[in-house]
Amino acid sequence: MECAARGSGTPCAPGPPTRRCGNCGAVAYCSLSHQMSHWNDHKDECPRLQQQMRRADALNDFPFSFTVESTLLGGVRCSFLDSIGLHRTGIWRSECCCAPSVMQSNNPGIDGEFGDWSLASTLCPCTEPRSPISTYLSGWKDYYQWRSLPLDSPVAILLHWPLTIYHCFQLSSVQTLTKEVSDKLHIHYLGPDKELHQLAVFGELKALFPGIQLHIELIGPAVPKFRDGEEASLCCYLPCSDESCLCKSYKELYDGGCEGKSSTVTLKLRKGFYHERVRDILKDSCPHLIVAPNAGVAAYASWLPTIELIKEMGIPAVFTDFCEEAAHLAAGCISSVTRSPLRLPIQINPFRQPLVMEDSALYLPCYSNCFIFGM
Ligand SMILES: [Zn+2]
Ligand SMILES: [Zn+2]
Ligand SMILES: [Zn+2]
Ligand SMILES: [Zn+2]
Ligand SMILES: [Zn+2]
Q1: pLDDT tens, 99-114?
Q2: What is the pLDDT of residues 242-271, one digit of tens each?
Q3: What is the rounded CA–CA span in Å between residue 181 and residue 139?
Q4: What is the Å distance from ligand 3's center to 357 Cα?
Q5: 3-class DSSP string for 271-291
Q6: Which residues form the MYND-type domain (predicted)?
Q7: CA 45 to ligand 2 center in whole angstroms
Q8: CB within 5 A of ion ligand 2: which residues?
Q9: 174-178 — which CB contacts under 8 Å span 24+ positions?
Q10: CA-to-CA dists, residue 235 to 111, 213, 231, 258, angstroms
Q11: Which ligand is nearest to the CA of 27?
């Protein structure tokens, strides 16, 4: 956490900022003088942040047995992952930043590097669901029940990616738009980042969209140059670590290729900004839905031309962000382009990642894929 007045005049007093704003409690200062000098900047946002802080309990509410530990503000992601035996392990490696080499390592592809969940078969969805998805899943509890997972399974920490896509699809009006969607669905996924190292968990989309050929184009500046154009078919679920589990025989069966499977998920990676790559991409794939997870619309000016483009295309687009204030600022940017209110108002994502993030500027609860909104 840093002093909210940092960089706005005199240097900060040494040490962590300990003076919290008495109204909102969302910002902190190094000294009384910085708190006073910052009030002119802060006074407009203060009541709004106060409202947002009131929703902290709702945001920290998850059905898991590890909720207390995983939502503890100031708790470190490393020590939580360590406590469940998954710290710097396999596909979980990019969940904390103490192993920076993972982001630069030459990843041999979506299936290659991280072979399994590093979990026993009872703790992860490594095979077909026992029953096809029938009713609408309203949150993690529904999902765990449907997939017969115990509430101490940590898989939600990675499965928030595919479940958020599922939820965005449910919220958007795409389902009613075209009949074609009933067997083919194209999604353009903007700004992938660390999920580029976790794409094997997108295999779960197979269970979430049964009987549908789902194609996702992942476009963003964080796609490494050597992966530009990389394609993958995910016809198998990420296997568990039990040698004798059924999922091992599936894997052998399909290692020859995914052709002929009724529901497959195909992914294609593209490096660059959407508005720069869109002409190429549209030759291959015309989207029914655009999703932009953890977008940071207000933080990156490069979103503005992309939002202009989405407006012209007229395709429903759903964004997520880490905290409510980021979503609020993003909504302002989007409305300034569309000149109309959000089509999908800001709301809590029931499938946000159940592992708290540290926000460097605010005490607001902060989770990956926390808030959803759309144009
Ligand atoms: Zn200061
Ligand atoms: Zn305040
Ligand atoms: Zn760590
Ligand atoms: Zn396969
Ligand atoms: Zn298994």
Answers
A1: 655 544 444 445 455 5
A2: 999 988 776 555 555 555 555 589 999 999
A3: 23
A4: 13
A5: ECCHHHHHHHHHHHCCCCEEE
A6: 1-46
A7: 7
A8: 21, 23-24, 46
A9: 174/288, 174/289, 174/316, 177/288, 178/288
A10: 11, 11, 13, 6
A11: 2
